[in-house]
Specification:
The protein is of the alpha+beta class and 776 residues long. The protein folds into five domains: 46 residues, no CATH class; 309 residues, no CATH class; 108 residues, no CATH class; 103 residues, no CATH class; 93 residues, Immunoglobulin-like, CATH 2.60.40. The protein has 27 helices and 17 strands. The strands form five sheets. Strands 10-11-17-13-14 form a five-stranded antiparallel sheet, with no helix packed on it. A hairpin with a 3-residue loop joins strand 10 and strand 11. The longest helix has 36 residues. It starts with a helix and ends with a helix.
Length: 776
Amino acid sequence: MILIAAAVVWLLILLYVTLTPRPSTIFGTRRNAQYDLFAFGALGILTVGFFWQLLFTPNAFMPAGGGDLAGFLYPTYHFAQEWLMRGVIPLWNPYIFGGSPFVGDIQTALFYPFNLFTYVLSNPIQYRDLEYLSILHFYVAGAGMYALLRYGPLTPERRPLNRFACLAGAIAFAFSDFFVTHFGNLNLIAVAAWLPLIFLFFALALEAAIATLPNLKAARNKSLVYALVSGILLALAFFAGHIQPFLFILLTLALYAGYMILLHRAQWQALAILALITCAVGVALSAITLLPALELTRVSVRSAFTYQDAAQFSVPPIELIGIFVPGFFGRGPENAWGPWARVEVGYLGIFPLLLALFAIILRRNTKTLFFVLLGVVGMLLALGGYAILHGWLFQFVPGFGQLRAPARFILLLDFGLAVLCAIGFDALVSPMSDAARQSFQRVVRSGAWIALIVALVSGALASGILILGQGQDPALFQRIANAANALGFFILLLAFAFALLIIRARDWLSARAWSWLALALIFFDLFSLGAYIDVGSSDPTLGYQRADIVEFLKNNSGLARIDSRTDVEGLWRPDTGLLYGLQDVYGDNPLVLNDFNSYWENVGGRDSNAYQLLNVKYVLTRRGTPMPSNFASAFEGGGGITVWENQSAAPRAWFAADARVIEDGIELTTTPAAAQVVTITGYGPNEIVAQVNASQAGYLVLSEMFVNGWRAFVDGQEVPVVRANQLFRAIPLAAGAHQVQMIYDPPSFKIGAIISGITLVFVLGVLGWLALRRQK
């Protein structure tokens, strides 16, 4: 249905642009706008073709096993949707790790418009919806790259690139290794997909600032509009929910701004101001999430990252062979092998690589040089701990010290190569000078001989490793066979690529006919090697489908927690509680609070006093797993899961008459009192209400995580919230009956919301004012 609706909308736009007598203000003149719309439609059709299994077959799922898409994002988005549809912004998540900030977790993408739209259309959200969102962002990446290549200032003479060239670059980027490998990291690719459009408007802003126009004021207005739009898109990318590619985008903009300032020193002030405007608008619009995120980062395990942590998942230098032969060390998680973790290697096709080379040879100018440099920087940073550059970034550039997986910097390499691919394609189909044609023909002749030698060596190597693998361990032989197959396919693609180059060098076909063949080869390459990676046939949400256990827990646990941090993994997903309203003492999220992590690591066994304070009533294990004597079997569920009842669990809230004041709070000197003294009458993601009958002065103690931002009111009067036993919240009380209300009201969220709101009104006002001035 969505595909049909999208096709209808696209056809209506195409008819309007084709038939309207007025020129289009977006795509240029009426005469050329329809062809660009055809290109955008073609990218949509190609995206559907790439993911045909997911879209048209019921038993295909991506990624195989679900990955983070099923294990983390699906329950997280479900929780966000549930409360947003109730009209509540869930600032706090009580369902994992004993409770943690939700609004400060960028990965939740709480305010991302695409997610909000999905929540309205599909309630409750399904796993398929997340797959569709991933697919949609492949299209966003391709369409954005086409727009950048077609309308961006990528040539010294500021002329648009050939449409076939733009399509080639768009296909190469959208279906490159970065996106294909990270299909299950929806928030990661959602942010990365906006890079081309952000860069387009940023580049246009800087270009307008240095352009010599008759009307200087018009040029300044135009550059300001482009900078503001770039900032808006930057905020949109931030809201998509992953800080790493967002910082990559900022790094790309900073490098381009610095590069342009070096080239145009006379206009350095204007260029610097525009760069600051773009970044300031993007950051200010994002403040509603950014400020709480900064606060969360300071108290999460990421705050204690060492360089060894940050350098995990670097690209080993030997694996760079994957840029040319992506299947040599295995293509996809099942077949990946080597003495390192599987990482992306930046493959975007053999022919696009050759086209990028011709961009360097035939279009030697400052525009081309930047994307060469960007690609080199991206590759060096992707090497992580294997090269020095990443360490400098970790130590000296704010933000990068809390990130791991340097391999993801390969995004910058793919971005640079995709642009160079389009520039090279354009160079080959555009009229050439005699010197350029002779240079092209010489390179093709020399390259053909080199390619022949490489093919012969690769073929001999493939045959040799197959022969040597005979009689070896079956698993080893399978790896050898996969490497040999990868080399064989590389030889085939290389042969096709040079056949096309020879055809072009000898003018055997028209530029248009040759362009169609070139696009077909790029399509065949990337779709053959990427479309079937990580496709599974089993439903990734099966680990959530434990109806009998869920029903038992919901009927019996009350406000008490469960504990699935056991051998039950694989039968029960850690974040199941987010789907069914069950509070788990652990979960699946990389942003674990430092205090909780420290407490958990030192809690001892499940029969310790420290464990009892966590209010864990039920523990899930595989059938037959032994448990301490304070546990009794409570329920035998399907799938081989046993539910154990903890008969020593502390209540969620209790009254403590005695406590010892310590440096950062209090330390309880008595065990939890009878639960009847405290009654919790209201509980939500942002608020807890309790009735307390205290016979003497003391503390109301809650088995809830202590985090700055929680406020307490006793009988309407605000009182301080203090830390108890390192981890929990406590509120001082006088003797008597009291109503206690706790609300999560972090100042960072309120301040961020004000900054975002004011910035949005200001930016829209400036854009409206400039539009009115232009009409006058």
